[in-house]
Amino acid sequence: MSLNLKDEKLAEPRKMCYNLQSDDKRVRKQALMNLRTYLLTNEFTDEELQFIFNETHIYTLKALRDKTEAVRSEAINVMRCLILDKLPKNDYYLTYIFPVFVERIGTVELVEESEEIRLEMLQFMQTIIVKYSKTIHLKPFLNDCVSVLCETVKDKHPAIKELSCKCITQLAEALPDYFHTQAESLVKPVLTAFSYQRFKIRLEAVKCMGDIVMHSQYKALEEAAGPMAERLFDQIPAVRQMVVQVASHWLLHYRDRYSFFHKLLPLILTGLNDEVDETRDKAHGLWQIVGLQYERENESDLKDQMDYLTTLPKYYPENLTRPNLGCRALVQRTVCKIAPALARELSSWQGDVRVRCGQLLCAVALHAEDYLTQHLQDLLPAMYTAARDEDQRVVVNVLQASELIGLFVPVETWCKLILPAIEDAPHYGQLSVLSSLIKGAPRQYIKLHLEDICKLLAEDSICQSRKCKYQRELVKCVRAILLKCDQEKNELGEYIFRTIVTVISLRDSQNNDLFDFSLLEELQKSFGFLSISHIWSEYSPNLLRRINTDPISWTPVTVERCIFESFLLESGEAFGENLCEIGNILAKTLDTDADPESRLKTFVALSTALDSKDELLSQVLVPTLVWHAGRTAEAMRTMAVSCVCSVLNPGVGIDLFPEAASIKPFLDKLTPLLLSLTEDSSSRSRHLAIQALRLIKVIATKRKSWTTDILLTIYPEILKRLDDPNDSVRMTAVNALPVIFNDSPSEFKNRNYNGHHEHIIDTLITHFDDDQDYELQADLAECLKVMASIASKSTLTDKFYKHKKLMRNKVALEELFKEFIFIS
């Protein structure tokens, strides 16, 4: 190429730059576009390019400050083309562009107002850093880069913030030997991006913070550790994974890491129990590497453990994988600093903090093993509170940690701490932790302490709670204890029995489907009882003596009354075995001066219980049958007479009254009350009273105590009930009369009782003709047949002819009379 042509070629860019002085922005923009096209479409030597740069840079740099955004954007493109694409690496060119970066986007006061231009400038600076990476040419501009990035990382535009974080990482890689001189100044600016709403920015901020700390003094790590820990609460798993990754890098490579293990370990240990499988797997993999490196670095200190403690400890759970020695040793050397902080943060007002602390506690308990012993005094109170957290993630982790503590820490140690706390002010959080401690403890070690635990749980102040959650956790404690018991019948079994009976007797309605008296089946299995009845027989006497405290003052909600009701309904054979104590309690709790509602509830339970027991409690039932005004008293009488029917109901094979002498006092008291009840306002009471009188007749006949006087006292009242307005009562009376008159005393058949015979026959025939119910007529006919065997033939004949004239159903009466003649 001739000299003239060369001069013309190099003069062309200068001519284009003249247009950059135009007042028309379109002309200025076109000039820059032409200049870039010219650079791209022609080939130049390095010398020529340097000449072009020297001729044009004044104009293009001025264009970077142009008031028109489009011109500034095109000026950036021209400079990128020159510095990045055309010119060789040389810090000479950078001395012109970096002051502009600092001026436009690297000052506290916002100079470049356009977000797009700020982003383009930052992208330009990023490509320079990449091109000049690990070269001496970039070193003089480290301060300028950091000044720019300190501001751009705080930019409101998310793309600028994200790119700034990436630039920091690239700058650290580009100047590894010099970045440390300015790294600390980036810490606070980058921390502002940790809480930005876009997760990609948070992710990049955490990543670049890892590089910043690696090139900084200890103060940077101290500043960053707290915000890094907060990112463990991030809702995005990728951010939490990045925290774990950065923490593991620090643990492996930070030069003063031994002084900061207590700050770094929580960052990776929390990830071991993350909700996301991928995060947990990544944390486990990185943590294993950290532990193995620590083993190598401390091989002399850990030599004995590496040589001799190669097998799993006895009782180590099969479902757990024991961390390697280095991981355990790392945690054990720092647990004295981690545990107090954990205890504080478990009670944090922030839910996310409590969740992560629960996860960290699990990991610490697994690694620290018995090294947690001396820190339980601080940890346990915080765990009691956390076990009541509304967030189940916190609860699950705390209880899992409790199991591990129960496994590793001596039982005697945690018993001395938790049992006094429960005794002092029990709540369900303590019971939750206790059940998990018991569950985790090896049976061989906890066996000696079970009696102390059970004795405490059986205390009235502990087991007599009606709180729903408290009851659930108490039952969990009982179940955990039963899994650790052997088949030795000692006081331990009685304490457990007392706790079970109490908590079920006071059971909240929400717990009805969660536990019931089937818990006694677990007690039976653990202690080798033959049956549940044997459990009741073994422990009922002491139970009844404990609850027999002023029964007359019981109310419906009195604990002792609720327990007694459970005993009546569930005790089986033990009911009869403890009749004396039962009678003593009932005589007081069913006293007419006792609380009416309490008496009613007890009557209901007693009636249900006596249906299958036939136990006599006349000293309790008889007083309640006495009439008193009011609906409550009426309900009491109904329940009392129901109980009498249960008591008297034969067929179980139990001799309630072995001798006639034993039944007479009872009948003397009971019969008049039952007769008065046949006229009670309650139809149910009338119905039951007739049934009871019928049962009395059956028992008295068997004991040869059925006399004419008793018969003459009873039958008139039953006969009156044939006029009762209630169909059920009338039917009951008709069914009872044949039983009453059957097997009558021989004395009653004498002629001097003929008046009674006539009255009975008249009444029966009248109702036989009046009542059109076929079933009732058949029952009345049965009554007349019984009377035909008692009255004389002449009496029957007289009554037949007398009533035949007046009856509507003469045919039926004639057929019935023929049967009378045959019977008589």
Task: Write up what this structure looks like.
The protein is mostly helical. The chain has a domain of 180 residues: Leucine-rich Repeat Variant, CATH 1.25.10. Helix content is 70%, strand content 0%. The protein is built from 42 helices and no strands. The longest helix is centred in the middle third of the chain and has 21 residues. The relative contact order is 0.02. The N terminus is likely disordered.
Summed over residues and divided by their number, the pLDDT gives a mean of: 84
Number of helices: 42
Task: Tell me about the largest β-sheet.
Answer: none
Q: How does the helix and strand content classify structurally?
A: mainly alpha
State the CATH topology of the domain at 221-310 and 320-409: Leucine-rich Repeat Variant
How large is the radius of gyration? 49 Å
Low-confidence stretches: 1-5, 650-654
- What share of the residues lie within helices? 55-70%
- How many distinct beta strands? 0
Instruction: Kindly provide the name of the CATH class of the domain at 221-310 and 320-409.
Output: Mainly Alpha
First-last Cα distance: 159 Å
List the helices and strands and how they pair.
Elements: H1 3-18, H2 25-41, H3 46-63, H4 69-86, H5 91-105, H6 115-131, H7 142-152, H8 158-174, H9 187-191, H10 199-214, H11 218-230, H12 237-253, H13 261-269, H14 277-297, H15 303-308, H16 325-345, H17 351-368, H18 376-386, H19 392-408, H20 411-424, H21 428-440, H22 443-446, H23 450-457, H24 460-463, H25 468-484, H26 491-505, H27 519-527, H28 532-547, H29 559-570, H30 574-577, H31 579-589, H32 596-610, H33 618-624, H34 631-648, H35 660-677, H36 683-702, H37 708-720, H38 727-741, H39 754-770, H40 774-788, H41 793-804, H42 810-823
Helix pairs in contact: 1-2, 1-3, 2-4, 3-4, 4-6, 5-6, 5-7, 6-8, 7-8, 8-10, 10-11, 10-12, 11-13, 12-13, 12-14, 13-16, 14-16, 16-17, 16-18, 17-19, 18-21, 19-21, 20-21, 21-25, 23-26, 25-26, 25-27, 26-27, 26-29, 28-29, 29-32, 32-34, 33-34, 34-36, 35-36, 36-38, 37-38, 38-40, 39-40, 39-41, ...
